[in-house]
Amino acid sequence: MNKVFLCKEIDKNETRTALIPSDIKVLSALGYEFVVQADVGIKSNYTNDEYSKAGAKILQTLDEGYKYADIIVRVNKPNDIKGIKKDTLHISSFDVFNEKEEVHKFEKAGIKLVSLEMIPRTTLAQKMDIQSSQASLAGYYAVILAASRLPKVFPMMMTPSGNISPAKVFVIGVGVAGLQVIATAKRLGARVDAFDTRPAVEEQVKSLGAKFVKIDLGETGQTKQGYANELTPEQIALQQKAQAKICAQSDIVITTAKVFGRKAPVLLTKDMIKQMKPGSIIVDMAVKTGGNVEGSEKDKDVVLDNGVVILNGDNLECFVPKNASDMFSGNITAFLTHFWDNENKSIKLDTNDEIMKGCLIV
Questions:
Q1: CA distance 285 to 131
Q2: Strand-strand pairing, 162-164 and 157-159
Q3: pTM for this structure?
């Protein structure tokens, strides 16, 4: 298995590509062979000519690629698996918890499926972790998006006309995305408060110059893979009550709290939002998994009667497609390199390997 087909993304809103030309050149040197669908990298500023120079053959249709490939690589899952050969290895993002019916289709068709989200969060697998690489860019862009809609500037300014106080940003959830939110907001001059259910992140928050908000929720902690443990309804109620005052004082609230494999917890209720100042901005980065904010909607922004704006924080990494593609491609390249069997000139699906065991779903 060494013949790889890089597909063009079907979703019109998807701007990334799963592999960039320079990484195809690296993988070709190992022994992989590549065909790519025409215009696969156009939205991320990579031309067909660059892919050709890297050693890939350009194909026009999915069917051509499916007939050729032992391995299919793309950013998102396909709308239809028709035409993919039995025993092909399909590598992409895939929500196995909420797409169980789709997983069974792969199983029934005899197509091997790797879900990139299911790669374990270990030191060895860190360079393959698309969750972290993409979340970091999304966190950066969440601040840029909020700043573009906020009717005031971020930094403190002392002018002949008077002083301007800095914008107040409140970050809820301090994982990879949350840390990048803090770092970016601080660079722009905002005053930043942050909260996370994991007390262990307090030091990271402070190291970035933000204030860590302490809320006594009882026992919380995190999973072995670094995700926050799911809170009880009672703990969520305590968190909401304590956060209401901070939200009311903030110009921007950015929520990043996701629970792996489950619906996101609601952390900002309608009553809390009613207390916020007109012109305040909320970015719900968990909207794809149900949302942290009551009233947020996937694929569109919401303007409330009190002047608060809730921005759709889904797939923000797609607004910086060049960097997002570079990082996604680096993750894929690390995966394909790690499992390359040089002796047999093929990828090795070693289920004794902890990484493969975690992400090979079918």
A1: 13
A2: antiparallel
A3: 0.90
- The rounded mean pLDDT for the chain is 92
The stretch 31-60 carries a mean pLDDT of 96
- For the chain, domains (ranges, CATH) are 3-118+321-356 (3.40.50.720), 135-318 (3.40.50.720)
Q: What is the pLDDT of residues 76-130, one digit of tens each?
A: 999 899 999 999 999 999 989 888 999 999 999 999 999 999 999 888 889 999 9
CB 59 within 8 A of CB 37: yes
Per DSSP, the three-state class of 89 is: strand
The DSSP symbol for 312 reads E
CA 310 – CA 253 distance, rounded (Å): 9
Angle at 198 between CA 254 and CA 261, to 5 degrees: 70
Tokens of 171: 């970050």
**What's the whole-number mean pLDDT along residues 203-224?**
79
d(CA 321, CA 174): 24
> Can you tell me the distance from the alpha carbon of 349 to that of 340, in angstroms, rounded to the nearest whole number?
9
Residues recognised as catalytic? 121, 126, 129, 132, 227
Its sign, for the CA torsion 260, 223, 127, 205, is: positive
CA torsion 284-286-289-293 (nearest 10°) is -40
For residue 339, give the nearest of 114, 77, 15, 111 by alpha carbon.
114
- The more confident residue out of 241 and 112 is 112
Tokens 């091997």 map to which residue?
112
